[in-house]
Amino acid sequence: MSRRTLLTYGAAIASMLALALFIGWWQVDGTGAPEPVAQRPLPLTQMEFQMTDQGGETVGPASLLGNPSMVFFGFTYCPDVCPTTLSDISGWLDDLGDDVADMNVVFITVDPERDTVPAMAEYVSYFHPAIQGWSGTLDETARAAAGFRASYEKVATDGHYTMNHTASVFLFDADGRFASTIDYHEPREFAVPKIRRVLARAEEETS
Amino acid sequence: MRKSTFTALAFSILVGLPTASLAGSEDIVVEDAWSRASIGINRPGAAYMTLRNTGTEPVTLLGLETPLAMMPDIHETKTDANGVSSMAPAGEIIIPPGESVSLEPGGMHAMLMRLQTKMVEGETFPLTMNFADGGKLTVNVPILGIAARGPEG
Fold first, then answer.
1. Where in B1-153 does DSSP place strands (E)?
2. Per the domain annotation, does B151 fall within a domain?
3. Could you say which residues bind Cu cation here (chain A) (predicted)?
4. pLDDT tens digits along A116-147
């Protein structure tokens, strides 16, 4: 192979490498990078969606104003994450006792096709009595998730399906402002103080 | 009779397998097995436990069997940087010698798909583990309440 051919090949390989590097940069760090999904939820006052609670009442973000709130997404056909989250929350509520008497605690299903109002009512009845279960249409579910910046996705399994979903718990103050997030399965010693802070903020404002 | 020979013999009688085909799985001890009661049979169940390898060889867990569910399988929950949780089959699980592998909420669990009967609080069900060396180990898993958080309830 002549020296000239070698040079040509070398230049071609070098430019291909440069192009690959550029594409990689563009997709990861450049303008081609996907928008970060984990954004702060909107204030409850800016959300718009309508659902039905476990008692058959029509509810929405405005129903939560006036008291601090704890909201999370899940589905009742979930064997691990959702019962764990509901049990964790039941434990936090037990720890906080009367202090959380006025707090709204809402479990919103991302699987309203299976989680009908009666299904949600039965499911939440096994956990702390403060936990509400909200179910809406597919459209309203999408609107709710968008407001909370939560994501979910239906995933087919053998003849059935499961849901991937945001497993964090969102805390809001009594005015509907987003306060903080409790991550999935966060230890009680971190979770309970976060709830106390939201409750304290509500106290300050009313006194 | 030496103690190890006796243990191996006792185990082979227990599960009806020739001692020669076993290499390691007889050293697996299952601790703190528990599961949650189910609502009906449509939703998949989950069971948790710790598998401790008391032997000197790594042991590979291939799969599960139980009369309770048509499709039992070990699944793993993963939560990404955005807080989104998903589940996927965990595949083969290797338990290194002298170490434990825990199936616990938020990590791995025995996913009990296609329940044949309702999981009733206070009852137990047999769960058989199939190991790569041909060994089998059956444990009776207690069924706790739906809101149980751990082996203590």
1. 28-36, 45-53, 59-65, 69-79, 84-89, 93-95, 100-103, 108-115, 124-131, 136-144
2. no
3. 78, 82, 165
4. 999 999 999 999 999 999 999 999 999 999 99
* pLDDT tens-digit map of B71-87: 999 999 998 888 899 98
Residue spans of the domains in chain A: they are 1-34, 44-206
Residue of B36, B70, B76, B84 for testing the chain A interface, max A β-carbons within 10 Å: B84
Residue B100 forms part of a structural domain = yes
Q: Is residue A82 part of an annotated ligand binding site?
A: yes
Number of domains in chain B: 1
**CA-CA-CA-CA torsion for A183, A72, A40, A32, nearest 10 degrees?**
80
Residue B20 confidence (pLDDT): 42
CATH number for the domain harbouring residue B71: 2.60.40.1890
Angle at A49 between CA A58 and CA A174, to 5 degrees: 80
Q: Do A166 and B109 touch (CB under 8 A)?
A: no
